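> example.struct
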């Protein structure tokens, strides 16, 4: 029996905050939609009867609505009443209430004007088994797989170990990225039916630099400002190392080339410069304060929970995040520039 891997990282900020401040993630996933649509058409032709689609790393669901709606319509070509189950997965601490409220009440819901759709949710880490063997026809994951299963190392010189000056720390990150990627693929190879498809989009890294240095640097400096104000101790600062990093194309291809996932085949693998919708907005408005607020709110929603998870629960974490967001917004507004980072796309087939 394959037990689910324990989760030791925090989910995205709750109470619908991530839904409201994930415009960057929405822009990121657009490049993966043609791959998802192609996979859905194939699944629609090959599968006879009900279809099961798994959404790995759903968060609160706002950015899943469009992709899932497209996938539903495409697997139903030629069979408009085909039953479709959508299984949303995320960490046990995820804000599933916001997801189901969106599904029930929001005009953007993929449930709107569609019958025979069956949404479900599973609170488990995708680094282990989630669903029964051979039960998934189509898998999708966006903006999620750069998160690691745990923090591999604590560093004192940055908020992300991948940006540390320590070669040993960066090596520890790469070792865990490799382990986590293999665990994710192994679990999916069991869950996908033969012929099933999986499409993923998430943070990558460049050839000569990781990418995302500008915003990660400002976030770390904002945290250092809190330390300098006496709001954080050095011990707390050390425990705030974030468990996320991008992978290179070579790192993604490695388990396939080594024969470690013999039932899976890469159908597509690419890297592209990530969009920056906040910079695009700034180009139209010239409003640096708005740019700063957009970035600060997104970083709070996506990264804030992990940065305060190690604090004493008696601490006023929300007040600390309020201060951090204010400092980060001001720093970003004073240094407006386009973020330079990378995304990767991978489409996989189960043989």
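> example.seq
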């Amino acid at each position: 029996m394959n037990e689910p891997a324990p989760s030791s990282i925090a989910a995205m900020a709750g109470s619908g905050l991530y839904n409201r401040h994930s415009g960057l993630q929405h822009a990121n996933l657009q490049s993966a939609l043609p791959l998802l649509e192609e996979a859905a058409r194939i699944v629609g032709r090959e599968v006879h009867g009900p279809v099961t689609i798994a959404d790995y790393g759903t968060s609160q669901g706002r950015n899943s609505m469009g992709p899932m709606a497209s996938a539903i319509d495409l697997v139903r070509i030629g069979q408009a009443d085909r039953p479709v189950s959508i299984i949303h997965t995320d960490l046990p601490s995820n804000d599933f209430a916001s997801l189901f409220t969106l599904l029930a009440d929001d005009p953007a819901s993929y449930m709107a004007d569609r019958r025979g759709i069956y949404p479900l949710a599973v609170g488990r880490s995708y680094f282990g088994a989630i669903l029964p063997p051979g039960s998934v026809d189509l898998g999708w994951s966006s903006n999620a797989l750069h998160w690691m299963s745990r923090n591999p190392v604590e560093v004192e010189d940055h908020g992300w170990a991948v940006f540390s000056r320590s070669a040993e720390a960066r090596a520890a990150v790469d070792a865990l990225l490799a382990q986590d990627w293999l665990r994710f693929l192994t679990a999916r190879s069991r869950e996908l039916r033969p012929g099933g498809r999986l499409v993923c989009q998430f943070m990558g890294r460049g050839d000569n630099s990781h990418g995302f240095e500008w915003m990660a640097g400002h976030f770390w400096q904002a945290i250092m400002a809190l330390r300098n104000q006496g709001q954080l101790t050095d011990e707390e600062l050390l425990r705030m190392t974030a468990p996320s990093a991008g992978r290179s194309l070579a790192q993604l291809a490695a388990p396939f080339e080594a024969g470690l996932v013999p039932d899976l085949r890469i159908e597509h693998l690419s890297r592209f410069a990530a969009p920056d919708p906040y910079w695009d907005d700034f180009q139209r408005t010239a409003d640096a304060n708005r740019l700063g607020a957009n970035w600060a709110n997104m970083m709070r929603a996506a990264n804030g929970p992990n940065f305060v998870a190690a604090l004493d629960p008696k601490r006023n974490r929300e007040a600390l995040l309020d201060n951090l967001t204010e400092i980060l917004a001001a720093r970003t507004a004073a240094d407006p520039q386009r973020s330079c980072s990378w995304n990767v796309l991978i489409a996989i087939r189960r043989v």
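> remarks
Residues 1-7 have pLDDT under 50 and may be disordered.
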